[in-house]
Design a protein that fits this description.
The protein is of the alpha/beta class. It is about 30% helix and about 30% strand. It comes from Plakobranchus ocellatus.
């Protein structure tokens, strides 16, 4: 199995966030997803992003989807919603637990955000 870690940078703005999300594995970035300004992340949008991630994995890491995917994300509403859980079960993706109250980024990941 291959583990994909989601790295996000957010700036809170009411209920929406300005956000980009980096999906990566040990070999590097698989997908960079940028949430358009003014849009909110919800389960449907997150599942759409997972569809794009699945396609990016198919293109950039051939054969990996057959071996299994382990995804790490936090327990945010879009991640824990029924729609998202159904998507993950349909494709057999495993979730690596994310401890409560953990930062989205570990200090060791800050280099990913350099300009």
């Amino acid at each position: 199995m291959q583990c994909f870690v989601i790295l996000t940078k957010q700036e809170n703005n009411a209920e929406c966030v300005d956000e980009f999300t980096q999906y990566r594995d040990a070999k590097g970035v698989i997908l960079l997803d940028i949430l358009p300004q003014g849009q909110c992340i919800n389960a449907a949008r997150y599942c759409s992003t997972l569809d794009r991630l699945k396609e990016a994995i198919r293109r950039k890491r051939p054969g990996l989807l057959r071996r299994g995917v382990v995804l790490q994300h936090d327990n945010g509403t879009p991640h824990s919603a029924n729609l998202t859980q159904q998507w993950l079960q349909r494709y057999g993706w495993e979730i690596l637990p994310h401890p409560a109250h953990s930062p989205d980024l570990a200090p060791s990941d800050f280099h990913c955000l350099d300009p």
